[in-house]
Amino acid sequence: MLTCIYNDKEMNYHDFIKDAANDKEKADKKLLLRKLSDNGELHCKGCGAEARLVDTEKKRKHFRHLKNSECTYDKFAKERKYFEDIKQKFYDEINRSIPGQSVVLDKCLEDGTWVDIAFVFDNNAIIVLNFIKRSFNETKMNAQHEKFKEIGIIDLWVIAGEPSICNDYEDMFAKDAILLQEEWQNIAIYAPENENKLTVKFKTNTQLRTYKRFHYESMPISAFSVNESGKIPYIEKIIEQKNTEIEKDNELYNEEQRKKQEELERRMLEAAEVRNKLLEKQAEIMQEETPKRELPVKSEADKVLELHQSTGMFIGSKTKGEYELIPLEEITQPKTSIPLMPFSKDKFEEKINEAFNGYAAAIKTLMLKLNQGSNEEKDLYLELMEPYRTLPKDDERYKILAHISKQSGLVNYIEKKYRDEFAPRLRSVLFRNNIEIDEDQFIRFLKKNRNWIKKDYVMGRDDHIMIAKYKNS
After folding, report:
1. How far apart are the C-alpha atoms of 201 and 122, rounded to whole Å?
2. I need a labelling partner for 454 at 20 to 30 A (CA). Which of 130, 187, 382, 433 fits?
3. Which residues contact 64 (CB under 8 A, 6 or more apart)?
């Protein structure tokens, strides 16, 4: 038992010696306490029976009955022996001088239930605090919680240990998930072993940038206090500050997204302007030719475009005055080993526009070039494709570019480039977190989360999200 009754006053070992001015005075007070114990002046606060001081070097100073007893306090003290150190440390360090309330160590409630610590207010309101292991039975814990609710007492629970690293309820330790529910205490409090501080995990507004909705905060035990509603003012203030920070960051994030969208639209307009300028340049070249040649060239191009638009087919070679009409899916890469000359940006744009205007030859040329070309040429082509990535999948331009990428093998280059860039980094994060890697699952994870990994993932900050996504792949 950590406390006893002396002269009708509840006291623990430290209460007897805390006012000692020096080591000699402390030794005198210890000697006096032993004499009080030997003289039978100390009593159990549970049953009133005589209690004795247990003063050894190996154990925390405490009190016990002279004989085996059916005392409920004695039974409670034995059941809670594991928490003696943290309970005494908590009681010694918290602020017990707040007006309007008293803090009681090992409190017996009116119904006979003992609790580790109780905050008793002048209006008779009581907030109780109990320490638990992770192994404590959830059913028993829930039964105690419901019992406290029935008698109008708010209960708080402190987990002896470290917090769960998971931030999704279904993946947390059961105790963490229970305590973070609104119908419980809406926070999880942890008391790490041999430390004079607590770790508190609480929910905040969702941070749009990271989708994070939980936050950890360390606080000294000396800062712990509760009000009559069971709230911890120190943490309530931090939650309010954190939510204010998140709201400001969310506003900034929304503004960044708006600017990204504007930039995307600007680039698409630029791409359209480049295309229009290319068409205008082609028109100027055609106008410079002789009038005799101008009319046939124009009419031939118009005929090809009109034929493409009316049939949906792509225009091949002309035989006996008739064009060959080819469905897009039947256009394949030419089987030739003859290398093409290097392509510049202008050359790629020229062939792309011809492909958009219905020329099958331009599509085949692009397939061959992307199959043969250097990585620099492929990257140049991918840069030109960027504005078209947001097109609807039923847009003809999107279909043409997708078909070219597939037939030329460009999709394999894109996939390899993506894996070479991100796979080693992601593997290292999984290894650091002792996550066993299944290759098939890892490949599914890379494919399924490509956009998130390339655009949003930041190593270090988003590792917990990445690990969760990998596990769900």
Report:
1. 30
2. 433
3. 1, 51, 52, 54, 74
- Are residues 5 and 42 in contact, defined by beta-carbon separation less than 8 angstroms? yes
Place of tokens 């440390």: 89
Give the predicted TM-score (pTM) of the model: 0.51
3-state secondary structure the chain: CCEEEECCEEEEHHHHHCCCCCHHHHHHHHHHHHHHHHCCCCECCCCCCEEEEECCCCCCCEEEECCCCCCHHHHHHHHCHHHHHHHHHHHHHCCCCCCCEEEEEEEECCCCCEEEEEEEECCCCEEEEEEECCCCCHHHHHHHHHHHHHCCCEEEEEECCCCCCCCCHHHCCHHHHHHCCCCCCCEEEECCCCCCEEEEEEEEEEECCCCEEEEEEEEEHHHCCCCCCCCCHHHHHHHHHHHHHHHHHHHHHHHHHHHHHHHHHHHHHHHHHHHHHHHHHHHHHHHHCCHHHHHHHHHHHHHHHHHHHHHCCEEEEEECCEEEEECHHHCCCCCCCCCCCCCCHHHHHHHHHHHHCCEHHHHHHHHHHHHHCCHHHHHHHHHHHHHHCCCCCCCHHHHHHHHHHHHHCHHHHHHHHHHHHHHHHHHHHHHHCCCCCCHHHHHHHHHHCHHHHHHCCCCCCCHHHHHHHHHCC
**Cα 100 → chain centroid:** 40
